[in-house]
Structures are given as C-alpha cells and as structure tokens.
Amino acid sequence: MPISIDNYGVTHDGRPVQRIELTAGSTRAVVLDLGARLLEMWVPDRDGNVADIVLGYPDVPAHEAGTAYFGATCGRFGNRIRRGRFELEGTVHQLTVNEGLNHLHGGTVGFDRHIWTVIETQENSVRMRLELPDGDQGFPGALVAEMQLTVGEGSLDIVMTATTDRTTIINMVHHSYWNLAGASSGNVLEQELQIDSDFYTPVDDELLPTGEIRLVAGTPFDFRRPTPIGQAIRDVDHAGAGRSAPAGYAGYDHNWILRKPAGEMGPCVWARDPKSGRQMTLRTNEPAVQFYPGGYLSDEVTGKHGGSYAPFQGFTLETQRFPDGPNFAHFPSCKLSPGEVYEHVMEFRFTAE
C-alpha cells in the first residue's frame, strides 16, 4: 500500500505515538507524529539494493531521552540563540536555555518533544500540525506550525509552514542525519559533499556565530567542488557548548551561506557515497544550510536495526535562517508577523550510479 498508519509505542505519560509509512516504487519513508520526524528513508543503490539512509532511535523511550534530534522537525527557532535572549520591537524576550547557557532547537520542550496532529494524508503524503500558545518556551505569539512530507520515486519533499497572532521569530529546521551507505554502515568521512556556497559564518567556542562572514576559499570550509567530508575535518575542531568530542575532534557545525537569492528555490547541496553509488541533491528556498557530520555522536547511542552510532556516522543538512539571527542586524530576518505565512521548502532527489 502507498500509505499505512499504525501504532509505534507510548510516551512516558501514556500518549500513543503513530508511525506513518509512505511508499513510491522503490522509495519508502517512515514518519512519526512524535516530533514530526523522519524515522526511516529507504532508497536503492547502484545495484538496486535498498537501504535505510537516515539515523534514528529504536523506540519511543529512546526518542524521549535522546538529545540528537534524529529526523525531527525543530523549532520554534532551530539552531542557537546566545543566552536565549533577543530583542523584538523594543521588547527583550528570554527563552528557555538547554545547551549550556544558550537556546538550541526550540528550547527545553521544542517541536521535537511534541506529538503533532495528523491533519491530512494522501497516497504518498502526510501533513501534521502543532499549535502552541503565546509565551511557549519564552517566544511571543501563539503559533500554528505545519509540516508536510511527500515521497515520490527517488524523491522526498518537505514543506514547513507557520503563522502567528503576534510578531515573533521563526526558523523551523529538519534534522535528519544522512548516511548514504546505510544508517549502520560506519562513518561518512569518505562520502563526498558539494555545497553551493562561497561564504560561511565563523563560530566561537560555544558554536555561536561571531557575526563575521568569511570566504570559504583557501579554508577547510571550501566545498565548492565535490570533496570528501573527512578531507580537512581535523582542521576545524570546536569542542563547543561544554561538550566533549568522543573522537578527540568534532569537525564542522557551521552555517554556509547559499549563492542563490534568499527566498527563491535553488541548489544547496550535492552528496555521494562512492561505495554504494547513492547520490542525493538538495534544493531549498532558505538562505543558508548548517552542515554537521555528527562529531558529538557517541557509540553509547543505540540506533535502529540493532546498531550503535559512533562519531561521524551521519551528517545533517539543516537549511535555515542564520544561527542567532535575531541578534545580528546584518543577518537575514527571521521575524514573522500576523497575516504572514512562513514557508520553508526542502526538495531531496536520490539517484545511484
């Protein structure tokens, strides 16, 4: 069947969690209403062998206890805000903080911690909604957020939208960790990446942007041509936010500024696994992408399919507004006002050769 819905488990406080499976030919996705998250993504390699290429926890208790945001829709503001503070229209707002002294991916109870309401299903698509009150996690404005995920043969489209009744900030991000060789196949350091970007935003030792914008040319951040993820990764170690890197180095957790005009659909990232031949392209309407190859993952984390996740076993591609955007006037606006509709689009395409 193209779509099926069944029970996945129960949260610690007794709420049922649904598992939604979408199929289009040899392409299959599994989504949970807990965190509106992508749990599985099955695509074929060059020989037609199908594998799940996203990391994930094995059950509901692991999702509730986990801190890696595997596959989740994150918000209200994905990425980091320094000290959880920002000023909007003359008022200073204090958010919950959940990474040292800073706000990360929506705070202590972000979008990933909620069970979303499934409001529409079609043959190969599901749409979910989350409604949050004014003041939730310290954010102004009652918010209505939606996430629609659609599967096609060799494709995955994600559309995130939001509206508010009071001026607020918004930066919804999708947080899947990709491993094109398969979710339990080992590290991704030999997989190739190309980012359509000439500039990135440097970070400090808390992984927060300094406000600078630098050229990637001549630095380890130059992915303008297909480049193995691990080629220069040891040159960008940031053991930030009070965390230790199990491998002894953490590598990238940075924001690349895309070449395309902000707000318009355009190229973002191309990735390839040389061994399986799987390739992935990503297009978006957002102005930037956060690339993070899982340097803080630990083999103490139990994953799906009976495996565990060591450092660098998956990479995230979080298309986004800039981190800590509300606190830098020269960064793209993340303000959302009543009557406006925030829309964030991601288009993934999968091939193999």
UniProtKB/TrEMBL annotation:
GO BP term, pick one: glucose metabolic process
What InterPro entries does its record include? Answer: Aldose_1-epimerase (IPR015443), Aldose_1/G6P_1-epimerase (IPR008183), Gal_mutarotase_sf_dom (IPR011013), Galactose_mutarotase-like (IPR047215), GH-type_carb-bd (IPR014718)
Q: Which Pfam families match?
A: Aldose_epim
Alphabetized Gene3D superfamilies for the sequence: 2.70.98.10
In alphabetical order, the GO MF annotations are: aldose 1-epimerase activity; carbohydrate binding
List keywords of the entry alphabetically: Carbohydrate metabolism, Isomerase
Q: Which CDD domains match?
A: galactose_mutarotase_like (cd09019)
Q: Which pathway does it operate in?
A: Carbohydrate metabolism; hexose metabolism
What does the similarity note say?
Belongs to the aldose epimerase family.
The cross-references to NCBIfam families, in alphabetical order and at most eight, read: PRK11055.1
**This protein's name:** Unannotated protein
